[in-house]
């Protein structure tokens, strides 16, 4: 039986947890504006999916949505990739090339892993955001574009600025409307909901009626899912391939992962006999992850100084 379509939002997102309800409200409010959005969340939380949802609810929904992973473009090519280049501007430039900004004109441009963009390129991006104009590589005429920008990062913003991965002025320009994407471990019953949705898709494709074992449902609820939705999706697919009739999720989570402490409802569960040093490390890292990499909040929650936290992280 198909999952209730009322659980689906914006045509592409599932979830009923309070954290997702807050996210839906933010998406609905910012989508109708042209404000720049900065999505902050761990790897695998679905930042591109959120960007697409914002685009689909916006007035630009009938125009182009262009997604670019800044970390996948070599530093010496990123300017030409974003802004295009003129014929003869460099070796191999045999014709004029239109960049991502022009492809996304009147639509939405999503820049994922924005903190992987070279700092000198961030200066040029800032100028485009301020004036809506740029010059193609090798060109001398400015090009005007009307683009709605959504950026994303899996880094803590404060740390990214401090470590030199993100210009502070660009951060403020991007974070007109910052949105935190909750990790899967904070989404409660959504974990099982998503797993059932992934299983349903595989059953429909293979014309089967496989189900989760009782123990699998317990694992779904107790495992911390460090890879978030991406990890859950892959684990379900792996279990589906191995299963005859019943999926056993526990067989598809590595031994190393299964022996780590699990997080459930804000609690860490350790195995008896865990060394104290290892327990301390896991507590610190779990708290840091809970606060999305914000070291100041992590230190305050743990009752230690920021300097002590930095020393511990350096050791780890």
How would you summarize this macromolecular structure in one to three sentences?
The chain is α/β, with parallel strands linked by helices and 316 residues long.
Secondary-structure blueprint:
Blueprint: E1 8-9, E2 13-14, H1 18-31, E3 37-40, H2 47-57, E4 65-69, H3 78-83, H4 100-103, E5 108-112, H5 119-131, E6 133-135, E7 142-144, E8 148-153, H6 157-162, H7 168-174, E9 177-180, H8 190-206, E10 211-212, H9 214-222, H10 228-242, E11 246-247, H11 255-258, E12 262-264, E13 267-269, H12 276-290, H13 295-302, H14 306-315
Parallel strand pairs: 3-8, 3-9, 4-5, 5-8, 10-11
Antiparallel strand pairs: 1-2, 6-7, 12-13
Would you write up a description of this structure?
The protein has 14 helices and 13 strands. By secondary structure, the protein is α/β, with parallel strands linked by helices. The protein has a five-stranded parallel β-sheet with strand order 4-5-8-3-9. The model is unreliable at 1-6 (pLDDT under 50).
Key features?
13 strands; 14 helices; two-stranded antiparallel ribbon
How many E-type strands? 13
The radius of gyration is 22 Å
Order of helices and strands: EEHEHEHHEHEEEHHEHEHHEHEEHHH
Structural class: alpha/beta
Look at the structure and give the mean pLDDT: 87
Distance between the termini: 47 Å
Helical fraction? 40-55%
**Total number of helical segments?**
14
In spatial order, strands of the major sheet run: 4-5-8-3-9
């Amino acid at each position: 039986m198909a999952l209730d379509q009322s659980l689906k939002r914006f045509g592409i997102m599932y979830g009923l947890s309070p954290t997702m309800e807050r996210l839906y409200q933010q998406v609905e409010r910012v989508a109708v504006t042209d404000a720049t959005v900065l999505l902050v969340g761990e790897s695998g939380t679905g930042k591109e999916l959120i960007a697409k949802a914002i685009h689909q609810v916006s007035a630009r929904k009938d125009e182009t949505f262009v997604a670019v992973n800044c970390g996948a473009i070599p530093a010496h090519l990123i300017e030409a990739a974003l802004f295009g280049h003129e014929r003869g501007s460099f070796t191999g430039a045999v014709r004029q090339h239109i960049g991502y900004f022009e492809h996304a004109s009147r639509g939405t441009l999503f820049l994922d892993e924005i903190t992987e963009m070279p700092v000198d390129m961030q200066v040029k991006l800032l100028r485009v955001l301020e004036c809506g104009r740029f010059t193609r590589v090798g060109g001398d005429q400015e090009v005007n574009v009307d683009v709605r920008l959504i950026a994303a990062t899996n880094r803590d913003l404060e740390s990214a600025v401090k470590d030199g991965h993100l210009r502070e002025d660009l951060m403020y320009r991007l974070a007109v409307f910052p949105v935190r994407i909750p990790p899967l471990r904070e989404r409660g019953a959504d974990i099982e909901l998503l797993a059932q949705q992934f299983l349903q898709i595989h059953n429909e494709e293979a014309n089967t009626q496989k189900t989760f074992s009782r123990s699998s449902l317990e694992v779904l609820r107790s495992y911390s899912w460090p890879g978030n939705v991406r990890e859950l999706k892959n684990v379900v697919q792996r279990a589906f391939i191995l299963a005859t009739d019943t999926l056993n999720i526990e067989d598809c989570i590595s031994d190393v992962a299964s022996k780590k402490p699990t997080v459930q409802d804000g609690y860490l569960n350790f195995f008896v006999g865990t060394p104290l040093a290892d327990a301390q490390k896991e507590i610190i890292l779990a708290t840091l992850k809970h606060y999305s990499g914000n070291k100041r909040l992590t230190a305050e929650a743990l009752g230690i100084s920021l300097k002590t936290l930095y020393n511990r992280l350096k050791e780890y």
